[in-house]
Design a protein that fits this description.
The chain is an all-alpha fold. It has five helices and no strands. It is flat and about 60 Å long. The chain starts with a helix and ends with a helix.
């Protein structure tokens, strides 16, 4: 059984991940409501994105320096 599940995951990884994401989103909508579910998913996505800086050993402030225009940088100092 374990080998069957592993081979299914390898062969259909995208479908399984999509199915699980849809299931989680559906449960959120049914329990919290549409807008609260969307807000929760956005907060989770933002947390994952910010956490990826730590995983890659990057500095978030260095990232902001790259993307912010010079005018905004000068106003913040």
């Amino acid at each position: 059984m374990k080998e069957f599940l592993a081979s299914c995951f390898v062969n259909h990884k995208g479908k399984i991940i999509g199915l699980l994401c849809g299931l989680i989103f559906g449960i959120l909508i049914l329990t919290l409501g549409f807008w609260k579910g969307i807000l929760l998913l956005l907060c989770i996505a933002l947390g994952c994105w910010l956490g990826s800086f730590h995983d890659r050993k990057e500095n978030f402030l260095a990232f902001l320096d790259k993307i912010l225009p010079d005018l905004i940088k000068n106003k913040m100092q």
